[in-house]
Design a protein that fits this description.
The complex is a heterodimer. Chain A is of the alpha+beta class. Chain A has one domain (3-74): TusA-like domain (Translation Initiation Factor IF3, 2-Layer Sandwich). In chain A, 31% of the residues lie in helices and 35% in strands. Chain A has helices spanning 15-25, 42-53, and strands at 3-7, 32-37, 57-64, 67-73. Chain A has a four-stranded mixed sheet, covered by helices on one side. The longest helix of chain A is centred in the middle third of the chain and has 12 residues, at 42-53. Chain B is mostly helical. In chain B, helix 3 packs antiparallel against helix 9, helix 5 runs antiparallel to helix 6 and helix 6 packs parallel to helix 14 (277-297). The longest helix of chain B has 38 residues, at 314-351. The chains are: A alpha+beta, B mainly alpha. Chain A: InterPro entries: TusA-like, TusA-like_sf.
């Protein structure tokens, strides 16, 4: 199982989710994608996308003011 | 009395920031993912508000009037506005509330939006804008056009929205939605941390949109929520010093900025964020085109697509449709288009022999910044 990191800080929505989709498409099953982001709307959009795709979220937390990280596992 | 505008604006800015209510996102999702959750929330606001507006009209608190429909300027302006909000990363209210979150790109979009609204409404472009807006058809409202009661339209709209809401509530994902770990308790948790649902947020915004009508009316500004006119008024006040232009709407938009700042600061979501070069240019261009587009169309996503639709004005519904088309065009050009180039880059990066193995959180791929 590999862990891949996608940095999207500084990108406004919808780019974090657009890039997350592209990135996860290239991963193997079971791999984890860490998405770091600072677009507020993505705190709604990313976990919902993961739930709708059936990808488990293994970590979702704040890393500072207006900065978040979410880890999605490809399943 | 003007201060009610400030209070309502603060509540609205607060609700939009905490509820992550983004009209641009709602329109854009239709083209990027085909997701209708946020457009459903937006339609809830229109439907609920229309019940309130026509009730207020029936009991005589307000009296709705309408004028001939400037179809040409509405079509052109709404398409332009829909295109511009993708560039700016937010519609007029979205830009106000993101400015309150500390996004410098939104500050720039806001400044150019207000400036170009004033230029289009009272400045050098005013002749052209009013010329285009003088191309009208006699019909003014949807119920007038079809010769039916507005209540029939409200019933149709409410039923359609009800079906959409049911569809979304039923397809709730099976997997539990991940939420941020709570760090606050009690009232602080409720106000500054708890995640709002899209439809709950829509109901709060609808209530505020209804309340805006009598509060604004009481000050002599005979309209509901509006963003473009007030933004233009602020510029006119700043450059002319004429305090006459300060109306309820000016207090409203200042309130939105303030409310969003309070919400963002209180929930640890305020940070000054500097955009990169491309985002900076897009924010400025988007803001300027938004100002021209909204002035041509007679309103932004709020004034036209959310408020004039609730009173079933043709201008509102036609603008709503063409804003979505404009958003689609810009999405093709700037989001789904360039992403193809990004995909290629991502594929190249992922294909490089840097596959990290567990358990270390090694980066398998260089960070990609637009």
């Amino acid at each position: 199982m590999a862990v891949h990191v996608l940095e999207t800080d500084g990108q406004v929505c919808p780019f974090p989710i657009v890039e997350a989709k592209e990135a996860i498409a290239l991963l193997d099953l079971g791999d984890e994608l860490v998405i770091n982001f600072d677009c507020t709307q993505a705190t709604d959009a990313l976990p919902r996308w993961a739930a709708e795709e059936g990808y488990p979220v293994t970590n979702f937390d704040r890393v500072g003011d207006a900065a978040w990280t979410i880890t999605v596992q490809k399943a | 009395m003007l201060l009610t505008g400030l209070g309502l604006g603060i509540a609205l800015g607060f609700a939009m920031q905490r509820g992550r209510f983004c009209v641009t996102g709602a329109f854009r999702d239709l083209w990027v993912t085909g997701n209708t959750r946020w457009i459903t929330a937006f339609l809830i606001v229109i439907a609920v508000q229309s019940v309130g507006v026509f009730t207020l009209d029936a009991v005589g608190v307000i009296s709705l009037s309408s004028s001939a429909f400037p179809w040409l300027a509405t079509v052109l302006g709404a398409f332009l506005f829909g295109f511009a909000i993708v560039l700016a990363g937010g519609c007029a209210t979205g830009t106000y509330y993101r400015a309150g979150e500390g996004l410098v790109g939104s500050w720039l979009a806001l400044i150019f939006y207000a400036l170009f609204s004033a230029i289009s409404k009272t400045g050098v472009l005013a002749t052209g804008v009013s010329g285009l807006r003088s191309v009208t058809v006699e019909a003014a409202t949807v119920h007038g056009l079809f010769g039916v009661s507005p209540w029939l339209l409200i019933a149709v709209l409410a039923s359609a929205v009800g079906l959409l809401v049911r569809h979304h509530l039923r397809k709730r994902p099976g997997a539990r939605l991940a939420t941020l770990p709570p760090r606050k308790r009690g009232i602080a948790h409720l106000l500054f941390e708890k995640q709002w649902g899209a439809f709950t947020t829509a109901l709060v915004i609808a209530a505020l949109a209804i309340l805006a009508w009598p509060l604004s009316w009481a000050t002599g500004r005979e309209a509901g929520l509006g963003i473009t006119g007030p933004s233009s008024n602020i510029v006119n006040y700043l450059v002319s010093g004429d305090a006459e232009v300060i109306d309820w709407g000016v207090y409203l938009v200042i309130g939105i900025l303030t409310g969003a700042f309070i919400a963002a600061k209180g929930s640890g979501e305020f940070r000054i964020r500097i955009p990169d070069a491309i985002t900076t240019v897009r924010s400025i261009a988007g803001g300027a085109l938004m100002g021209i587009g909204a002035s041509l169309a007679g309103g932004c996503t709020i004034g036209n697509a959310m408020v004039n639709t609730a009173s079933f004005e043709l201008q509102g519904w036609v603008a709503f449709g063409f804003m979505i088309l404009g958003t689609g065009a810009a999405t093709r050009l700037f989001i789904t288009g360039p992403s193809k180039a990004r995909s290629a880059r991502n594929a190249a990066a992922a294909g490089s022999p840097s596959q990290a193995t567990a358990p270390g959180p090694s980066a398998a791929r260089a960070s990609v910044r637009r």
